Amino acid sequence: MRTPSSTGHAPASEAPAPEAPAPKTRAPEARGRHRRTATVWTTAAVTVNVLAHAGSLVTLAALLVLAATAGGLADGMPAGAAPTVTATYER
User: What is the DSSP string of 1-53?
Assistant: First the structure.
C-alpha cells in the first residue's frame, strides 16, 4: 500500500496553510512600439514652439516672394507694367 507521501499528497495533518490572496496589480498598459512616455509641455515651451512654426511659415512665404521676384527679373518684364495683349482676327 502506498503511503500518502509517495502519492505526492500531503497527509491531512500536514496540509499547507491557505495562502494569502495575491496583491492586486494593475494590468499592463496597452502600448505600441514606442515606449516613450508623453512629454509634459510648459506654457513657455508651447509658446516657443508656436512661434517657431510661425517663423517657419514666414520664411517659406519670403522665399516664395524672392522666387517670384527672380522669375520676374529673368522674364524681362518690368514689375509694374502689365503685359500687352494683342489679338488679331482675320476676315
Answer: ---TTTTTPPPGGGPPPPPPPPPP-PPPPP--S--PPPPPPPHHHHHHHHHHH
pLDDT, tens digit, 9 for 90 and up, residues 1-24: 555 555 555 555 666 667 777 667
What's phi and psi for 9, nearest 5 deg?
-100, 145
For residue 70, what is the DSSP state?
Answer: H
**Local structure of 67: helix, strand or coil:** helix
The answer to whether 8 and 14 have CB atoms below 8 angstroms apart is no
Cβ-proximal residues to 79 (8 Å cutoff; 6+ apart), any chain = 69, 72
| Spatial distance between the Cα atoms of 42 and 50, rounded to a whole number of angstroms | 12
pLDDT tens digits, one per residue of 36-78? 777 888 999 999 999 999 999 999 999 999 998 888 778 776 6
